[in-house]
Design a protein that fits this description.
Blueprint (H helix, E strand, L loop, with lengths): L10 H21 L5 H21 L4 H8 L3 H11 L8 H15 L17 H18 L9
Helix pairs in contact: 1-2, 1-6, 2-4, 2-5, 2-6, 4-5
């Protein structure tokens, strides 16, 4: 059986660090003009992890994040906004991206070729810009975590 969180006191930071890594991976895929399932998976997972970082700061524990939120982006945003309705940490643009990707991400559609959506997705460069601003905002909020863009 896997060990749960090694150190609960830094769980939110670890979620955000992983979100930043997925954001960097999305940028590499975009720069390589590889805009298929792996790009959208990285964008969706970066959003998921960043929202879980915010929820952890609100007092949700790892089991809450795994069971209540799971991979549902919009649900994670709703839980966050329920406790912090006036927060500006999630921009309108990031909220829109969350809504556009939420169902696909929750169903794991970006992980499997047979499930990859054939419907129109957001414009990739725009989605990556929104994600980058979102992650930068959260990194600053969490105390200036590294935002290496190389």
């Amino acid at each position: 059986m896997r060990e749960q969180s090694r150190n609960d006191e830094d769980l939110g930071v670890r979620y955000l660090q992983m979100a930043l890594q997925h954001g960097r991976a999305a940028r590499v895929l975009l720069d390589g003009n590889q805009i298929e399932a792996p790009f959208w998976h990285c964008v969706g997972h970066a959003l998921e992890l960043s929202l879980k970082a915010l929820l952890e700061r609100q007092g949700y524990d790892e089991m809450d994040l795994m069971h209540l939120v799971n991979h549902h982006l919009h649900r994670a945003e709703q839980y966050y906004r329920a406790r912090s309705p006036d927060s500006k940490l999630i921009s309108d643009e990031a909220s829109q991206l969350v809504r556009e990707l939420s169902c696909y991400h929750a169903r794991l559609d970006f992980r499997y070729p047979c499930l990859f959506p054939v419907v129109s997705l957001p414009e990739p460069a725009g989605a990556e810009r929104v994600l980058d601003v979102h992650l930068t905002t959260l990194a600053d909020h969490f105390g200036g975590l590294t935002r290496d863009r190389s």
